[in-house]
Amino acid sequence: MKHAEQRSPVSFVANVARLPQKGLPVMIEADERQRAALAAEYDLLSVESYRAELLVASWKRNGVKVSGHVEADITQACIVTLDPVAAHIDEPVEALFLPEQSKLGREGFEGGGEIVLDADGPDSPETFSGDTIDVGALAEQFFGLAIDPYPRKPGASLDTAGDDQPEESEFQKKLRSLLGKS
Hints:
Elements: E1 13-15, E2 24-29, H1 32-41, E3 46-59, E4 63-77, E5 84-99, H2 103-110, E6 126-128, E7 132-134, H3 135-146, H4 170-179
Parallel strand pairs: 5-6
Antiparallel strand pairs: 1-7, 2-3, 3-4, 4-5
C-alpha cells in the first residue's frame, strides 16, 4: 500500500486563488503536540518554541511569493558528550511558486524559456497545482535546514589530546620532511 505524503506537523494550507492586494499574513505558532512532532522528525531532544511569520503575496501574473521568517528554540544532543545543547533558530523564508500550467513554469523548466536567477535571491520557482500552497510545510523546510547537524557543547572536543599522542607514521614523517616542517 502506498503511503500518502506525510503532512507537516505545522501544516498551514493557504488559499492562493484570491490573495489580498497587500498579501495574506500567516502566523504559525506550534503547540506542544506540534513541537513534539518536530522534535521527533528532526531528532532533537526538544523544541521549546516554534513560530513562523509569513506573507503570502501575488507574484508576477499568476505566481505566488512567500516571504517571512521562522524562529525556534530547540535543544539538541551534543555530538561529543550527548549533553543537551540549546540553540536558537531565526531563519529567513523566501520562495516563489508558479501554477503547474503557467507558461513561465513550463518553459522555464523545459529549456524553452529563460528565467534569470539571482544567486543571493530566492531559489527557482516551484510549481503548485490547484489553488492552495502548504506554507506551513515550506516554513518547516527552512527550519530543518537551519538546524546545526553537528551540535557541540561549548568546550567539548573530539580530540584525545594528552601525553598519549600516537606515534607518527612513516608516511607522516616523510610528509613532514617534504613540507619542511619539523
